[in-house]
Amino acid sequence: MASFMVLRSTLPRTFASATARNSLRSALQVRAASSTTQYIPGGPILKGTVNDPTEFPPPSRTHGSYHWAFERILAASLVPMTAAAFVTSGSSYPVFDGLLGLSLVMHSHIGFDSMIVDYVHKRKFPILSPILTWTLRSATVGVLVGVYQFNTNDIGLTELIAKVWAA
Description:
Largest sheet: none
Radius of gyration: 31 Å
Oligomer: single chain
Order of helices and strands: HHHHH
Strand content: under 5%
Number of strands: 0
Distance between the termini: 80 Å
């Protein structure tokens, strides 16, 4: 009984692999007979396309590791900055209020810019990508002006959040 089960389980695999090998061999022979180039076992090496080494851009202080480090420092500094702004009153220390407003807007801008760069890439969306980038830049400038006006002419960001929190 056990030998019958072993024979039964190995027979289809042997037949299937032999059939697959024969069909692959015939496909390669048809391809070799129909094409003018010879079949190379490892595959052809294309020159001037995907096999060329990647050209790296020159180092820049505004992109790459410096940019990444700035994003992480800004994100990590938002936690103590938020706590310091709420411990001290916004009207007593307007510097904390302004710094918190500026940092939140910069953090949001960097996050939305990363989404545009990752998901609406310029090579795939040559018209939409610059439009979204400039829309984000103009919205960021508008929000910065609004935060400045709100902090200087009204109660300020931390006072607003404290009032909303208490309501």
